[in-house]
Fold:
Amino acid sequence: MTFMPMETDDLFDNDAAACVPVADEATGEIRLLSERCSTCIFRPGNPFRTTMPERIRSMIADAVADEGHVTCHSTLPGSAPAGVDPAICRGFADTYGDRSLALRFGGALGLIREVPPPS
Structure:
């Protein structure tokens, strides 16, 4: 399985990408947020939509073109609280989930595990 390249704690400071797995190694389950996090880029009024619209559009377009996904920024290593594993962004899944290979396969195989957004 391939993962959408996402940037870690320096998300917007440079373009060095790192892959962060959203699948549990032991079970193969795909982690998906059960709801949008409080700062989801898909929420209306999110400040990144106005301050970084091209960056967000590009990230989403790349994910869709690659049949990938967007990992929730609140679950990325360096940003997430201790014990929180990377998970697919709920906003991306609600909008483009039918174009994500991980979500299609995970859904077909019953391997989607919804996890709460970090608080």
Summary: The chain is about 30% helix and 10% strand. The chain has a mean pLDDT of 86.
